[in-house]
Design a protein that fits this description.
2 copies of one chain form a homodimer. The first copy, chain A, has 348 residues and is an alpha/beta fold. The first copy, chain A, contains 12 helices and 12 strands. The relative contact order of chain A is 0.11. At the A-B interface, helix 4, helix 5, strand 2, helix 6 and helix 8 of A face helix 4, helix 5, strand 2, helix 6 and helix 8 of B. Strand 2 of chain A pairs antiparallel with strand 2 of chain B. Chain A binds a DNA duplex (16 and 16 nucleotides) through helix 2 and helix 4.
Chain lengths: 348, 348
DNA sequence: TTGTAGGCGTTATCAT
DNA sequence: ATGATAACGCCTACAA
């Protein structure tokens, strides 16, 4: 850092000589042993003598040898690569943290992550799957349910260990770690009821997960004796402005509402902003409940009542279960519901 | 979606038969041609007869053949894999969008992204580099400057095309696309001056990029005749609460301040929240300037004056330049400064 | 237009 | 404890 305001454009446009990387044979030659002994000294140190192990290590240091995982993978049929397939990497996606802990946990076990975005139509998904299968990944993490059932079937057929993370689905491909959006909706309905709100409403995003939460909320609200719950729909991915628009619209059509269940925390923040702008007090006039418990939720004014998901734990668990399955252990419980927590703060 | 509230835990704990994937030999047998003909029909269709091409395609469909990129890469020394090395994937990081467009653009050219986090100490970085080199990636995207110069040297020595994205650095490893944090600081100082503010202050994060912006701001402010610029330091990664705390502290120590340059948009949002809570008006009493132009900036109340970075373009350009270099073209301009825009809105 | 032989760098198998 | 040999699946080089 502290670069000068105007860094000189060093035209480092060298043609890049393709560098002859040292191979195991080079290491073996330098160490004065056979290739296979060198291989064992590195991959299975316990079965070679102390002396050779040291010689080989020295030779590695001297030559700058880095094992070719392509060659190793070809023979051993293990790539030490795990595909992580996300809907799309947008900022503000709550699952980003899950990707972080997933990558970190896998790295600790010696696996790298190949990142794939599948939000580019079925054709793109198909091509992505080709790339994944073609690389002979050892496992696949699917974040957010994959809709197309032909692709789900294809995934199942590969025989590659798959773990779905984030959403609970009814018919998991193999393993699953996540939480139920429907249950969240129901839990929020109960929370709202317990706080004595009389006229609940919601802002729902046009996106399956938010829709599921809305559905759960609606169903439970009906059971609790609330009539129909007014809802307004907004586009995904959600933004603060959608919260402002949604709140304004609900307020116009249902001036008697007293609480809004928002699609996400960002939407909730927008709703609060809009209400403040219109001179309403939160939560005295209108309560607000969000979803996600993103890091700004606790610092909002008023602090946001919302639903917390432990994304980091989801990523970590997904990594652990996948590694266990890859390395042969049968999984005790292939479907894990990590649940959620309704975080009561000041906003609703 | 629309899963039942309580999805049945189907114990899908089958031991996973390792499935014999079809190889090119299988395809060749089914198609009644030799392996190499099948290979050509797929990789170089123009040089085989129409009839064989069709036979082979049919055989591929029948067998469900997916080429083994490990084997192909071993021979051709091309993995069609690009490593993307980020500091750490935290939510609210502005470069997430760059990763998105990078991944997308690379996918369109047939390259996949291997994701690596290097924020786990030098030892971790070293292991990460082993993984990257061992996989014989075709290129490396380094997001955010890599500090340790021994590692930079090692990276240079690999001969693998490298593009640094996000930060301008003084001595690029190879190619570079980004913007200058120092220049941003200076530009904001000039903006603040042009708006007639008299007592600028700033909230700086303990993190090299934010520090560089602060440094640029300070230097230019001095040149413009402002005295010393009071600054308060906050931890990274930045959160809204840091903005609240920082603003409160600055206000306590310098009640006469009239504008705050914040480390990030989230910090700016926190500062606004704190000021509102303390009964100050933004921008009438105190102006606020952020950094990042994250998607909520425009929807804040008041809309946030901030610095916009075109992260998507950074990712796209990085991908294009890298692919061009990988595929042999010499790069016209290996160092690209994409600049930034001071977005004037209502907050300052 | 199609086919044969050999090698990429590693590890599994079987010997010593 | 160490070694020779043969794959792994594909592609380049050369030949037909």
């Amino acid at each position: 850092m502290r670069s000068k305001p105007c860094p000189p454009s060093t035209p480092a446009s060298k043609p890049l000589s393709p560098v002859n990387r040292p191979t195991l044979a080079d290491v073996a030659k330098v160490a004065g042993v056979s290739k296979i002994t060198a291989s064992r000294a590195l991959g299975n140190p316990t079965i070679v003598s102390e002396a050779t192990r040291l010689k080989v290590q020295e030779a590695v240091a001297k030559t700058g040898y880095v094992p070719n995982l392509l060659a190793g993978g070809l023979k051993s049929a293990r790539s030490r690569l795990v595909a992580c397939l996300v809907p799309t990497i947008s900022s503000g996606s709550a699952f980003i943290l899950a990707v972080q802990s997933l990558t970190e946990t896998l790295a600790a076990s010696g696996y790298q992550v190949m990142l794939g975005q599948r939000g580019y139509g079925e054709q793109g998904e198909d091509a992505l799957l080709d790339a994944v299968i073609g690389r002979r990944v050892d496992g696949i993490v699917l974040i957010g349910a994959m809709q197309t059932s032909s692709l789900r079937q294809r995934l199942r057929d590969t025989g590659i260990p798959v773990i779905e993370a984030w959403d609970m689905t009814r018919t998991p491909i193999d393993m699953l770690v996540g939480f139920s959006h429907e249950k969240i909706g129901a839990a929020v309905a109960n929370y709202v009821h317990s706080k004595g709100y009389r006229k609940p409403t919601m802002i729902v995003a046009r996106e399956p997960r938010s829709t599921a939460r809305g559905h759960g909320f609606l169903k439970e609200a009906r059971r609790l004796g609330y009539g129909d719950v007014p809802a307004t729909r907004i586009d995904a991915p959600t933004r603060m402005r959608h919260g402002r628009q949604g709140a304004a619209e609900l307020l116009r059509q249902h001036p008697d509402l007293d609480v809004i269940f928002c699609a996400t925390d960002l939407v909730a923040l927008g709703a609060i902003t809009e209400l403040h702008t219109q001179g309403k007090r939160v939560p005295d006039d209108i309560g607000i409940v969000g979803f996600g418990d993103l890091d700004f939720a606790v610092d909002a004014e008023p602090p946001l009542t919302t639903v917390q998901i432990d994304s980091i734990e989801i990523g970590r668990r997904a990594a652990r279960m996948l590694v266990e399955r890859i390395e042969g252990g049968p999984i005790a419980d292939p479907v894990v519901d990590l649940g959620f927590t309704v975080m009561e703060r000041a906003s609703g």
